[in-house]
């Protein structure tokens, strides 16, 4: 009985795992040789009819794995920027931040485009 239940559970989970892999979002990053990891959060749905329904707030987690601070900037067209979101932020050495992606999501554009450079002292 347990084996049958386990097999059913695995059969139900397999399509979800495949769907999660298929929904990889496009983040364009320019890291200038820095060891930085960028992960999407609040990923929009793939269905173009459901663009208005986000799974959470569209944001990125930026993990700086270097021993120096990094300044990062989102590339957002002026017409797409909101007045409250700043496209520039700093990530300390060996730390992480979560930043909201400024602007609106469009299905024909990347989820986010981000450039990071060592912070000038």
Would you kindly provide a written description of the structure presented here, covering whatever features stand out?
The chain has 121 residues and is an alpha+beta fold. The protein has one domain: Immunoglobulin-like (Sandwich), CATH 2.60.40. It has one helix at 2-22, and strands spanning 27-30, 36-41, 59-64, 70-74, 88-91, 95-100, 112-118. The strands form two sheets. It has a four-stranded mixed sheet, with no helix packed on it. It has a three-stranded antiparallel sheet with strand order 2-3-6, with no helix packed on it. The longest helix is centred in the first third of the chain and has 21 residues, at 2-22. 12% of the residues are buried.
Q: What fraction of the residues are assigned to beta strands by DSSP?
A: 25-35%
Q: Biggest sheet, in brief?
A: 4 strands, mixed
**Mean of pLDDT:** 75
The oligomeric status of these chains comes to single chain
Strand order of the largest sheet: 1-7-4-5
Low-confidence stretches: 5-10, 12-22, 50-54
Label the overall shape.
globular
According to CATH, the fold-level topology is Immunoglobulin-like
What is the CATH C level class, in words?
A: Mainly Beta
What is the rounded distance between the termini?
A: 65 Å
Radius of gyration: 18 Å
Provide the helix percentage.
10-25%
* CATH architectural grouping: Sandwich
- Spell the H/E element sequence: HEEEEEEE
The total of beta strands comes to: 7
Structural class by secondary-structure content: alpha+beta
Structural domain tally: 1
Query: How many helix segments?
Result: 1
């Amino acid at each position: 009985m347990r084996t049958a239940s386990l097999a059913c559970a695995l059969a139900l989970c397999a399509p979800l795992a495949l769907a999660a892999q298929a929904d990889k979002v496009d983040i364009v990053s320019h890291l200038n040789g820095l060891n930085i990891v960028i992960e999407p959060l609040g990923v929009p749905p793939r269905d173009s009819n459901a663009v208005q329904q986000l799974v959470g707030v569209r944001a990125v987690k930026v993990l700086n794995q270097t021993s120096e601070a990094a300044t990062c900037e989102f590339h957002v067209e002026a017409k797409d920027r909101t007045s409250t979101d700043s496209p520039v932020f700093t990530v300390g050495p060996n730390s992480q931040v979560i930043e909201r992606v400024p602007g609106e999501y469009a299905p024909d554009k990347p989820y986010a485009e981000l450039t990071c450079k060592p912070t000038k002292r």
